[in-house]
Amino acid sequence: MDQTGLFGTGETYMSDPNKVAIVTGAGRRWGMGYQIALGLANKGLDIAVADIREDWGKESAGAIKAETGRRAIFVKTDISKRASVQAMMRADRRAGQRRRHRAARERR
Ligand SMILES: NC(=O)c1ccc[n+]([C@@H]2O[C@H](COP(=O)([O-])OP(=O)(O)OC[C@H]3O[C@@H](n4cnc5c(N)ncnc54)[C@H](O)[C@@H]3O)[C@@H](O)[C@H]2O)c1
Asked: Can you list the domains of the chain with their CATH numbers?
């Protein structure tokens, strides 16, 4: 991480199309996590909604996709459980690999 923190210098970092934001607790459509995820998607990031509630999480990822046109996935996660967070990170990495392979195929 550089001196400017996780979000770097702002626009440059946030609009990098290769970046994915993992937003925990972004399942509930009227909660803060959802608004943060939506804001990041509007800045050009793809989103991983990590939430304990599958119904809310799927709905939230679908709404972010529909509203912003960015990719958004739901990964069921209980952030109070280390194993669940580790599984979420693995799922997100796999999704990233699939995304990179798809982008490489599209460039050919
Ligand atoms: N809303 C406010 O004004 C406010 C102000 C200050 C602090 N906070 C705090 O910020 C946090 C979020 O607030 P909010 O209003 O957006 O809450 P919210 O209830 O709308 O959203 C919380 C989200 O976290 C998810 N969640 C709950 N437990 C989880 C777990 N173990 N693993 C993964 N996901 C889980 C829920 O399913 C939900 O989607 C809370 O801790 C709240 O106390 C809220």
From this structure: 6-107 (3.40.50.720)
